[in-house]
Amino acid sequence: MNPPRHETKATCCYCGVGCGVIIETDGQQVTGVRGDPDHPANFGRLCSKGSTLHLTAQPLLQQQVRALQPEMRTDRNQPRRNASWDATLAYMAERFADTIARHGPDSVAFYVSGQMLTEDYYVFNKLAKGLIGTNNIDTNSRLCMSSAVAGYKRTLGADAPPTCYEDIDHAQVIFIVGSNTAFAHPILYRRIEDARKNNPELKIIVADPRRTDTAREADLFLAILPGTDVALFNGMLHICLWEELTDSAYIAAHTEGFAELKQTVRDYTPAYVSAVCGIPQADLMQAARWFGASKATLSLYCQGLNQSASGTDKNVALINLHLATHQIGKPGAGPFSLTGQPNAMGGREVGGMANLLSAHRDLGNPQHRAEVAALWDLPSVPSQPGKTAVELFEAVRQGQIKIIWIACTNPAQSMPDQKLIREALRTAELVIVQEAYTSTATVAYADILLPATAWSEKEGTVTNSERRITRFKPALPPPGQTRHDWRIAVDFAHALEARIGCNTLSGSTLFPYDSVEQIWNEHRASTRGRDLDISGLSFALLEQRGPQQWPFPEGASSGRKRLYQDGRFPTASGRAKFVNVAYQAVAEPIDVRYPFALTTGRLRDQWHGMSRTGTVAQLFSHAGEPAVMMNPGDMQRRFLTAGDLVHVTSRRGTQILPVQTGDDMRSGQVFIAMHWGEEYLSGRGPRQNPDDACYGVNAMTNPAFCPSSFQPELKHAAVKVLKAELPWRFLVFAWIDEAAVLALQAALRPFMRNFAYASCTLFGRSGSGVGVLLRAADDAAAAPQLLQQIEAMFDIEGPHILRYDDRRRGHARHIKLNGDRLEAVALSGDTSAELWLKPYLEAGQSVLGLGRRLLMPSAKPPAGVQSRGRIVCNCLNVAESEIRQVLANAAAAPEERLALLQRQLKCGTNCGSCVPELKRMVLQPMPAV
Predict the structure, then answer these.
(1) Per the count of CB atoms within 10 A, which of 54, 201, 398, 465 is most buried?
(2) Domain 4Fe-4S Mo/W bis-MGD-type: where (predicted)?
(3) Which residues contact 515 (CB under 8 A, 6 or more apart)?
(4) C-alpha separations of 587 from 332, 366, 902 in Å
(5) Contact present, 395 and 109 (Cβ < 8 Å)
(6) Which domain holds residue 200?
(7) Any idea what the CATH number is for the domain that residue 421 is in?
(8) For residue 452, which of 422, 420, 486, 475 has the smallest C-alpha distance?
């Protein structure tokens, strides 16, 4: 008898779009996931990441990488051992109490996450600022959205995106800047595609240093040089002023400070801006005219603006443009910051950052501090701003902060300047990591590991980019000894209160919570009368009526779709403020020694550090291995061909990577996806510099940060690219039991440090076969015993293995068969046979007819054998080679070819994430196949 099926509504745990999902379970495990057709963020649609969420929650995977019970060590020279919750929390409370007594409350710190729920965030914020008395609590949202926060506050008066997703449907011009929306926010991009179909007059402008899939679809693409956004926006405003496209009546009635800004933008002539930004004057003029003359212009922006040492200036310069042209406070118009993480908004709402307080209150405002103290029944809350992300880890490295508690984030992958971060984690007297996954790089530094619940097990609320709050319930009970993030913080707070006493005026606990609803109700009370007032909401209402937008004050019948339609702003004067900003160059300009601008960004099918998406083999099929993308001309001038290994080196670190041709960027720029950290990409560096360890892309990125938002310049670093002379290669790929695949990948990680370069990724599809691929390179053949150890981990050992060995040349080929099918292959020295052996393995094709060719190093590949290539459509497993075959044989006009592909191969008919790439392929000349 089949177990009964249950369905639970939740949200996707990836980007800030906040898509509703329906989780299907059998009471024991997640059996499926689909989009929630009733959720107003996505109306049932999911992207390639969201549609595979159920695969990340399978027991076979969970038991390999989930943190399921507390672990602790009191001696850093010893491994962590299992411990009880009571013993762990007691030890933590003892260490905190002693450290605070000896060094003060600012000697401890918390680094939390935009993937926490609002209730989790609220409790951690209260723990730090209320009980301990330190503002040393910051979040990985500092790396994501803090420049947007500062930009909104400086201009509009509050951290409140004034727009909504529905504005996409009403816009006449959409200006996308600093965002590859097609990859980073795919469901919103589907909505843009729909808007274009419904309104053929809609114009799309994209400003980006790279010609991304988003940019390729634009009516006007501005290929600006990295970091020149302020010059672009000021130049557009200059043109709007010159051509009388500004709204002088609106400026006079609802804004202040325009006269000073007007004097500044006089100097941003088309000729000057064209030279600074590297774009044609005609394109600049067209962009300004479309923006200013439109009845409704909507800007969508993300990390390209925010992750910069001048990130706040970039945000306010764009908002200045909206205010001057009255492109705000009406349907289809406004500056819309697209949130990167699923609940970065919720963290901002509860003040879960080093310089904020609950309900958008300012730490520097005495009245705001007094309001929070009264709410929490405290005599006061600390006034000194805490350390923000980069500052925080620098303070740990210098010994000012003794204890750091990291929750639901992976700074040993995501923070810039990884050498600094790892030195800090080694220096700290106590490192506490609260995590759902044991596989993250940060867990290796943990003295205490606290096992937390994950998506499908949690309960609470999140707020998406359009200020919409969704409540969801757990689909499954917590596994093992895991606890909810808020519960861990509350349990610790009680243990700490027992040692240092309750500091409330009434003498009662600061943490009287037994449920998430109690926490949320307290958060709700803190918002009364504020710009984000949610006093009219309740858990019951959210359950009855579904997700709601704030503000939703008591007595309201609904939330507010868009803000400032009356021209009133939450500033002292009630007017929006123009901020006079001038263009500043990137923090680290390129020079003769470091002549390339490194840009980082997202892959279509991966998420952040890949602790979750990295468990799903099929999500590697679109971009299977790490690479640095480079302009074809730059490659030719350096005698590089696709697949060559290169050193990418900044002033902070280096990483060896294969180079690939990138036709999406101009000369002088290189691109590496932000996701590749030590978990998948590492090495010890070249043999002549054994201490120059590689930690992935963020070994090279820049910790310089914006003085207003404290957000680091992750988007740009000056680097040099030199060919890596590493002639010896090693490659292993094999089918692995799904119950062991992630454990194997984790076990291989220490071995990767023995090579100058190494990467380890997955391939295949869950349910059809999952494989592990390890690739390595060095300047000389590795020790035989090292290779034997690695091959044994793939079960390539024993007398039944087919072997060819040429020890003199360092070449070997070791093959394991399962009947007449390849199951595992190890290649040393000459790895060229990968081109035909891996397709045989992946296709499950019989090798009986190959005979001795399997082991002959000089044998030619069998006729007709070729790799399927990249999987373009992940949902339906459609490969690039199959798409090209159909297009090569198609006589249809370009505009009909997409429909032909969708009919014949079904690609692009499910989640739609591959549609932009399909459109690009349709327009390319197709050689005969």
Answers:
(1) 465
(2) 5-61
(3) none
(4) 35, 34, 46
(5) yes
(6) 146-337
(7) 3.40.50.740
(8) 486
